[in-house]
Design a protein that fits this description.
This protein is of the alpha/beta class. The chain is built from nine helices and six strands.
């Protein structure tokens, strides 16, 4: 029988230099969703503010829901390969600005996920990050892949023509799945939990849908 090949760790960097996009909330819930699909997952907190670490240290969590490590210096992400080899997925909660640590996250990622609120101002604010990604893609045969995900949207709100135009100008795919501005996200996070530990099934479905699309982008031909 042929020897079963060892799975290669896939790295998702959740990046956005603009505050309020729900970056940490998405990174934590996404990591947990991937873990719930019977995968081994490591959450990396590269934000010097340490929000993911604070979440992990909450009384109802105490590091039991997800393994979380801090790599919040420019050179520390170089150590990622040595500490992540036993995991199938690594989710990086990125720094809140286009600093050297963000550029380092782009270099180690298989997919950069850019959470944005559905407004032209929020989308335009990602231009520096998109430039960093495309510069990297130009010298690495299109790697990493990158895509937008709309977060904290209002219920039944359609994307305006301005938002669509802004998205199209970046020439990056947009996930069909999104998150709605629900109480479940901040309320569970504040307790050191995820939406999977709450009662809002729609929030759970949103995160699961995002996770499924990400798998298609990483392993499939899309993106």
């Amino acid at each position: 029988m042929p020897r079963k090949s060892k799975s290669v760790t896939k790295v998702i960097a959740v990046l956005n230099q603009k505050g309020g996009a729900g970056k940490t909330t998405l990174a934590i819930n996404l990591a947990y969703a991937l873990q719930e699909s019977n995968a081994t997952v490591l959450l990396v907190d590269s934000d010097p503010q340490g929000s993911a670490r604070d979440w992990s240290e909450c009384e109802k969590n105490q590091g039991e829901l997800l393994p979380v490590v801090a790599l919040d210096r420019e050179n520390s992400l170089k150590d990622l390969a040595s500490i992540s080899s036993n995991y199938q997925w690594v989710v990086i909660d990125g720094a809140p600005s286009i600093a050297k640590i963000s550029a380092a996250a782009v270099k180690v990622a298989d997919l950069v996920l850019i959470p944005v609120q559905p407004s032209p101002l929020d989308l335009w604010a990602t231009s520096d990050l998109v430039d960093v990604i495309k510069t990297r893609q130009d010298v690495t045969d299109g790697k990493p892949k990158a895509c937008f995900v709309v977060t904290r949207a209002h219920k039944q709100t359609k994307l305006s023509s301005e938002v669509i135009a802004a998205l199209e100008s970046y020439e990056l795919p947009v996930l069909e799945a999104c998150t709605i501005n629900r109480v479940a996200y901040p309320s569970t996070l504040s307790e050191g939990l995820t939406v999977f530990h709450g009662s809002d099934k729609k929030a759970i479905f949103e995160i699961e849908s995002i996770a499924d699309e990400i798998k298609e982008h990483v392993y499939g031909t899309s993106g």
